[in-house]
């Protein structure tokens, strides 16, 4: 234990020596981002050249594939992250563990945590927070105005729909047993923003995809991420599920698949994502 603590102390000392510290008012030039929506904003601000690393949820735009990866945002390692010599780490509130973030700060690296409410207003707040952290507030205001205009157009488009389909979101892209989404989840927020009803609104959070939960939900449309379909090995496991087969969605094979970051990220593409979801829920794919 003592040897481990001594080794960590040495690593942190080296990190303090190697990592460039920002002077007062100096713009960050070596930025690491933990959170796909934040990475999208950095690109939208035209500052991709400042990125030296991103987490694995940062999958858009495609250029992010070329950047060094720091792992999953909830399981960050300070040693690997600091080896990239960042002068700023931008992270969403879910990033951690806290010990790793504390070690990064102790090494003299600035860490900015950005709140991530699952609301359209939250998307605007992220834009301003990222722009301010990067020292480009005026660019952030321009991007925010564009985002708000796009969101207004989306609201008008969604208001034109009169039906409210019952939609059940299936969480499968994280691995393990599939779950279904209830209230107070990102999926619930997206379904409601698209002018539909969450078929899982009878419970809070996520719960196992049991026959009881599915029959109670009785969805007309299924919603799942493309990554979730990959994890399941295709759509057959859904249509073969004995409870799902008995629902209106199962009878009609009505399903909508979208990229997880696009669907659940609540980033700058939110207006487009909501408008596409609203349209496709009314004209779902038949698989």
TrEMBL record:
Keyword Lyase: no
All copies of domain Fe/B12 periplasmic-binding, residue ranges: 30-285
InterPro entries: ABC_Transporter_SBP, ABC_transptr_periplasmic_BD
Signal peptide (UniProt feature, chain positions): 1-23
Protein name per UniProt: ABC-type hemin transport system, periplasmic component
Pfam family, one: Peripla_BP_2
Alphabetized UniProt keyword annotations: Signal
Alphabetical list of PANTHER family matching this protein: HEMIN-BINDING PERIPLASMIC PROTEIN HMUT (PTHR30535:SF4), VITAMIN B12-BINDING PROTEIN (PTHR30535)
